[in-house]
Amino acid sequence: VASALQIQYAHHYLHIIGVQEGRRPQFAKASNIYHMISSGGLDGQFGCELWFNTSLPYAGPDNKLVFIHPRDLHGVCAEPKLLVVDLNTPNLRLRCISAHAPHSKLVKERASFFKRLTTFVHSASPVLLLIDANARLDLIGACTSGIAKHIVAAAEQLPRRCASGEAIGGRDVGFLCDA
Fold it and tell me: What does pTM read for this prediction?
């Protein structure tokens, strides 16, 4: 399954992929297209992954083609529901986070999860947060309690530009959310 997904993602020129519910053991390994890092699952559940395309260049100085290399990837945190990896190249610095929030009915666990997540969003580098927030995205901007409070708090720490172009809580949010 992973090899078929890699081909599909590469076909769409995706540089960084976040996976939640990967359910695979902890590992870091390379394929022909992606260098994959897994936080590891727990009893056949959970597991976050980040995949970095090592075969697709991005523009460096003077339009020189530059590639992500595994030596540029530095693990910060690996837990069944949270994976944080810093990408540090001479031309690009980025904190990449793949996260999977607890179910909305688990109020205390969610509060703890988002408090912990917020600590990793504080970074000198721009942050790419790829998250299954287990929340309805259309409600986030409208309320200030529950999940919205935590996502907006994390979003306040992120750069103003975001992949989706959507504004949440008056700020652009630099993450993609699979609700």
Answer: 0.77
For each successive 10 residues of the chain (179 residues), what is the average pLDDT?
Answer: 88 94 91 94 93 89 88 97 95 94 90 93 92 71 50 53 37 37
Please name which of 51, 45, 55 lies closest in space to residue 23, comparing C-alpha atoms. 45
CA neighbor of 49 nearest in space, from 70, 15, 24? 24
- Distance, CA of 58 to chain centre: 19
155: closest CA among 169, 166, 165, 139?
Answer: 169
Rounded to 10 deg, the angle between the 146-155 and 107-121 helix axes is: 0
User: How many residues comprise the chain?
Assistant: 179
Host H or E run for residue 96: strand 93-100
Q: Amino acid identity of 60?
A: G
> For residue 165, what are the CA distances in angstroms to 50, 90, 175, 176?
22, 27, 10, 10
Euclidean distance between CA atoms 173 and 152, whole angstroms: 8
Query: CA-to-CA distance for 145 and 160, rounded, in angstroms?
Result: 22
